[in-house]
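go over this record:
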Amino acid sequence: VHRMASTEKAEESEVRLKKLQNDLQSAEYSLSLLEDDAAQIQSQADSVEKHWRQISLRHQLEEWMRLKGLSQGLNDAEQNVRLAHQQQEKSMNAMHAVRSTTFKFLGIGAASLLVFLVCIVLAFLLLHISGFLTIILALFACAAIAVAALSWLQYTKVRGERAIAEQQVQDATNRVSSAVAVRETSVRMLTSNESLTQTEYEIRKLGGNIPHSLEEAQRLLQRMPKEDENTSNVQLQMKEKVDAANAARNQVNAAMEAVARVRQEHTQVETQRTQEAWDNIDQYLQEDRAAVERMH
């Protein structure tokens, strides 16, 4: 009776095992199809992402060139401001020196005229008293007028140089104002170095290298293909492909779990059949029949 009951269970187990084998083959086949589909979708997502990286890297390099040019322009403007101030200082020193010389010759001329007048007045006063002193005073008066004349000539010459020096100072002042205006324009266009730093970070994140110069950046751009597509549109396409790839991976994971469950159940049934020796149940029944016949 026990053998008969075991035979029924063995038959039920065999039917169940065959069904599990069919389910396992079907699940594995579905998993294979899903894995192929997921691999294809992931490949498309990778291709779109690579395309987006190329477009984004080109835009970031162009932005880096613009910001780097502004940064260099700001440095040049700062240097021009310093040079303009130095030139202005030199011109001011030269103008002050010319002015000092002008006042010196003007003072000498005025003093000489004063000496001339004093000598003339004294000569007239001493004309009838002492002829010798009158002659001496007359000579001093001649010398004084000669010095006054020479001082006037030098004053006239230096006054021309003073006008030139003042014009040079004005030109230097204008250059300072122009240089400061250029610097302020550069500062307004480049608010800070944070923009350049952020752009360099984006270039590294996209897998690119920071150029060492504007010329190197230009060569890199020339080697990169020109893309007319909008970065936002490509980014939207990339997001759609990535979402599709994630969904496909989720389907693959669900299918793998289903295969694992069927395989586990299949293993449990096989283990039970081995433990119960149901694979040899027919042989055991024949042996039991033969034993019963020998008893009769």
Summary: The radius of gyration is 54 Å. Confidence is low (pLDDT under 50) at residues 1-5. Residues 2-125 form the longest helix (124 residues). The CA atoms of residues 21 and 266 lie 7 Å apart.
